[in-house]
Design a protein that fits this description.
The protein has helices spanning about 1-20, 25-50, 55-75. By secondary structure, it is mainly α. Helix 1 packs antiparallel against helix 2.
């Protein structure tokens, strides 16, 4: 679950960094994006080390579907960690 949260935050911070009109703030968001990518990577490596990759990918798919259902019922405003 934590890996999925970090991956989503990576995506969202990347969008903020790409579309933010303030260059200094955009660079800050891109730096945070890189940090979230490292976090996601650590979770992925741990899961891949201790579990079969097929099991990990199946579970990530299940969690992504649940996440989608939850986000469909919440307010549509952007969020980072959700």
């Amino acid at each position: 679950m934590a890996g999925l949260i970090e991956a989503r935050s990576h995506e969202r911070l990347g969008l903020l960094g790409q579309h933010c009109p303030d260059p200094q703030l955009a660079a800050f968001y891109r730096g945070l994006m890189a940090s979230e990518a490292r976090h996601y990577g650590v979770y992925w490596l741990l899961a891949d080390r201790y579990y079969d990759r097929t099991i990990v990918q199946t579970r990530l798919g299940e969690l992504a579907r649940i996440e989608h259902q939850i986000l469909d019922t919440l307010h549509p405003h952007p969020r980072i960690h959700s």
